[in-house]
Specification:
Elements (H helix, E strand, L loop, with lengths): L1 E2 L12 H5 L6 H12 L4 E4 L13 E5 L2 H10 L4 E4 L12 E6 L8 H14 E13 L3 E5 L7 E8 L1 H10 L3 E10 L4 E10 L4
Parallel strand pairs: 2-3, 2-5, 3-4, 5-6, 6-8
Antiparallel strand pairs: 1-8, 6-10, 7-8, 9-10
């Protein structure tokens, strides 16, 4: 993820819904609600962005590389712990979290980076932990402009088939199920795959 100038992601932090519609209509929202209702321990929100879903977790920890995004997250989730950092290098102790969550953030990793991250998640999650994450359906990888809101911001996108995601998660030691869904935005609708993964209890 890159862009000219400092913190290009922060420049769109307060304008997400303007461009993409209400977050409560996203496939992410209802899955974050379900995770919040069934998890009593700490939840790690990977690339938490402006903190929409992070605000749902009673004991949430958000990590993001954008100071501007974290500033917006502080407004929406004042009780959450916020960490300025790169999710590709998780700065947490082993067995720190009961669950992990990510709303269309892991699509910005290369497929090799996702594989490495899933291995690191095994380290920081407690036995029996749940992972909820959403991906764009398709094939291949590309770098392209992220949004008309900030022309300087380019982002990497990885697209997945179901069997590809299953292989990546299972290779990292997770069991999982995958659901098809649609992400509806004002200017387009995007086919997506929603993963529910589980770290073995023992």
């Amino acid at each position: 993820m890159s862009g000219s100038g400092r913190d290009p992601w922060g420049k769109v932090a307060q304008r997400y819904e303007e461009a993409y519609g209400p977050k409560t209509a996203s496939p992410c929202w209802r899955r974050a609600q379900a995770l919040a209702e069934t998890t009593s321990g700490r939840v790690l929100d990977l690339a938490c962005g402006a903190g929409f879903e992070l605000s749902l977790f009673r004991d949430g920890v958000g990590i993001d590389s954008s100071p501007g995004m974290l500033a917006a997250a502080r407004q929406r989730a004042p009780d959450a712990a916020l960490v300025l950092g790169d999710m590709r290098q998780l700065p947490f102790q082993p067995h720190s979290f009961s669950a992990a969550y990510s709303c269309f953030a892991l699509i910005h990793l290369t497929k090799r980076e996702l594989s490495d991250l899933l291995g690191d998640l095994q380290r920081v999650l407690l036995p029996g932990a749940t992972v909820k994450s959403m991906f764009f359906a398709g094939t291949g990888e590309k770098d392209t402009g992220f949004s008309d809101l900030e022309p300087s911001l380019t982002a990497h996108y990885s697209y997945y088939q179901e069997d590809e995601l299953v292989a990546l998660f299972e290779d990292a030691g997770f069991s999982l199920s995958v659901e098809d869904d649609i992400l509806h935005e004002p200017r387009m609708s995007i086919s997506c795959l929603c993963v529910s993964a589980f770290k073995p209890a023992d």
